[in-house]
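ok new one. same drill as before - structure tokens go in, u give me an amino acid for every spot. 312 of them this time. try not to just spam alanines like last time pls lmao
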């Protein structure tokens, strides 16, 4: 039997300590990250205790009669202690569903943590989605990932781009000019998609100040002007490109090719995987072929980010 309680700010220290020790948690689950946009979401995160000890966490928010894996996070499933077993996680989901029914919820939206982020195998919740919840897959995003221990050969077009950027005097490296890159990012998203970044400049400055070792900026410049860049999220197992963008001139000079040549060959990452991010639209029904073509040209291959639903 589990004791299930809602998270409250007084539990922040206990929550964060558990994330650090869990087998599938990352820094995105620390409260200092989750709560930066607390004004936009009604937090309904849950903590699961067994025999007085914290056994699992679920970062979540409420939307009417639906409980959602936290909408402010890319992924957000049950975080488990290292010795969590399949049988107990099945029991956890049975009791979670009963708890939510009692609280008046009718549906659950659940985003799994992709296996590349697991410190050790941690798919017991995936099994419970099928065996206990009879959950349905409703969103599958395809990301392009390199296993850094066995990288694939690059497409010759990427090598052409690297040479073009270098021959035109493009320089790459880590930067702290967040405002300069955000101007490029915002303009590119506006022209291409009529959209804005998920994070405002003020929000990414706040998060990078809270997690300076985990959130870093790398840029490509010419004559001191930022032409492109990427924001990197670093976890135990994955180096993830959260944003990738270039100006019109940067695209012409192929600065992104030069940037990732630097990141993948000159930087000594401790993580096993490099994740370029997803390349699809409309809940995974449309593949953006030019975008994934570039990522696959660096040797990236498919890893799915999945979202499930079930009725209570």
């Amino acid at each position: 039997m589990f004791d299930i309680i809602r998270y409250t700010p007084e539990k922040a220290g206990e929550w964060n300590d558990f994330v650090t020790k869990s087998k599938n948690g990352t820094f995105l689950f620390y409260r200092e990250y989750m709560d930066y946009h607390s004004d936009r979401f009604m937090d309904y995160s849950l903590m699961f205790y067994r025999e007085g000890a914290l056994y699992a966490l679920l970062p979540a928010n409420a939307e009417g009669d639906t409980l959602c894996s936290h909408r402010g996070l890319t992924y957000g499933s049950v975080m488990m202690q290292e010795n969590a077993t399949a049988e107990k996680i099945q029991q956890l989901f049975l009791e979670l569903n009963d708890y939510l029914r009692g609280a008046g919820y009718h549906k659950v939206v659940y985003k799994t943590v992709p296996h590349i982020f697991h410190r050790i195998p941690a798919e017991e919740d995936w099994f419970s989605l099928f065996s206990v919840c009879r959950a349905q897959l409703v969103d599958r995003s395809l990301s392009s990932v390199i296993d850094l221990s066995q990288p694939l050969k690059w497409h010759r077009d990427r090598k052409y781009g690297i040479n073009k950027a270098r021959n035109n005097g493009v320089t790459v490296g880590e930067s702290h000019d967040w405002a300069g890159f955000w101007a490029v990012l915002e303009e590119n998203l506006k022209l291409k998609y009529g959209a804005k970044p998920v994070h405002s400049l003020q929000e990414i400055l706040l998060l990078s100040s809270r997690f300076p070792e985990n959130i870093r900026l790398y840029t490509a410049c010419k004559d001191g002007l930022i032409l492109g860049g990427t924001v990197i999220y670093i976890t135990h197992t994955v180096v993830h490109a959260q944003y990738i963008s270039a100006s019109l001139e940067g695209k012409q000079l192929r600065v992104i090719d030069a940037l990732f040549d630097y990141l993948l060959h000159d930087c000594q990452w401790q993580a096993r995987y490099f994740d370029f991010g997803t390349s699809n639209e409309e809940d995974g029904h449309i593949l953006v072929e030019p975008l994934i073509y570039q990522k696959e040209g660096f040797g990236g291959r498919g890893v799915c980010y999945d979202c499930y639903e079930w009725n209570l």
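Residues 15 and 30 are 8 Å apart (CA to CA). and btw The two ends are 19 Å apart (CA to CA).
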